[in-house]
Amino acid sequence: MLVVVENIRTLLDTGAHSSCLSLSLVRALRLQKDVMPAICNKNLFTADGQPMKVCGTILLSINIKGLIVPFTFHVLERLTHHLILGIDFLSQTKADIDMATRTVTF
To answer: Which of 43, 47, 76, 99 has the CB geometry, 3.0–4.6 Å to 51, for a possible disulfide?
Structure first.
């Protein structure tokens, strides 16, 4: 399991079923050897239905204000954000999203 010490601008996406990491971030952090290849030709889909090829998965521990969370992310070639936390991550961490104050607590 890896613990990455970087500040990464992240998108919390309640419309995304799966949490994803960009291949370019994996390369920048030199973590290519830690990516487990995709077992099948799995695709995820954008909000408008376009397929996105999954390169593999990676197990990372991320630190959110002192909360260390190990999680397996899908690695994708093209993402608009380097890290997207989807419903799978938000559910596992029991995140509480307060729309009125625009805050998230874990």
So the answer is: 43
